[in-house]
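Reviewers of the previous submission asked for a worked example of the structure-prediction workflow described in the proposal, so we include one complete record here. The input consisted solely of the amino acid sequence. No template or homolog information was supplied to the procedure at any stage.
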Amino acid sequence: MHVPDGFINAPVSVATGALAAAAVAVSLRGARRELAGTGQGGGAGAERTAPLAGLVAAFIFAVQMLNFPVAAGTSGHLLGGALAAILVGPYTGVLCVSVVLLMQGVLFADGGLTALGVNITDMAIVTTVVAYGLFRVLVKVLPRSRRSLTVASFVSALVSVPAAAVAFTALYALGGTADVPLGKVFTAMVGVHLLIGIGEAAITALTVGAVIAVRPDLVHGARGLTAPLELRTSPLTAADAAPAAAATPVPAPAATAPRRSVRRVWLAGLAAALVCAGGLSYYASASPDGLEKVAHDQGIDAKARDHAAKDSPLADYSVKDITDPRLSGGLAGVIGVGATLAVGTGVFVVLRRRRNAADGRPADTSATAERV
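From that input alone, the workflow returned the following structure tokens.
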């Protein structure tokens, strides 16, 4: 659903750019709390998600390269807002998807540069807000279990994609550059993205379910799923204590809570991202995605302008001057994963250190505790 330059006029593009900038600024502030493990629902589990935030951005970049067929002549790909919000929190999720969109636009000429505000508004903000809001509602009404979290992930991701299609239609109604009946745009966009939403939901639920199965403490949306560690006094060591007091559970001090390394999860996630971008992407569907198909069928693409980065050595997800398509695409994917991981991790490390400094904690406290 990457909107190219020319689909939306300048005033609306500027307005969405301002909205995106404001949302990113708010998300930077909120992500500092999420990554530092402070605020509502914070704690050690929240701190352990910090090293994974950059990886989530890289993983979303990689899986977005895997277009899957959804109908005759149409494909879809992951948007990632729901996945990011559930794994690392809504504020951090907005930043993750925004980093992906920035890398795609600057390095790979995917999604217009003047339309960057449109894309961040549609693919980062709308999907994350809708998905996470619905996810929290479902978590409250469903039984408290890992299966319920997976179901909530599936439903919220499914709804987030047509919600983004509706948002694009609204933006097109305000600033569309082609003379196309709005009803046709709405019907076509929502119809095809309902199908794409099924693929989004499956990818999100499988990924969230896999992480919950091995490390629920690393999933922002699963916070509180596992009971806190408790210590019980033994009658053998407190013989003269009251019987009732001997059986009273005592919360374990925070300092004695066991800390587990996230290294294995991080390496597994990185390996999965590299396999997706560097190998499986070669087998992705070559059909146009939902927006490209609708734009072509409705004549909207006649207004598209050449991308400012069309001469980038990585344009169209291939490495310039490498003729083998498998090698060229795979190498471009690996470079993209590395660049997104580096930029994303850099942003999140700086945010976490600033929060620690504001709280008067040593800058490396959480990094040491996480044993990355």
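Confidence is low (pLDDT under 50) at residues 38-45, 227-231, 252-257, 364-371. We consider this example representative of the routine output the project will generate in years two and three.
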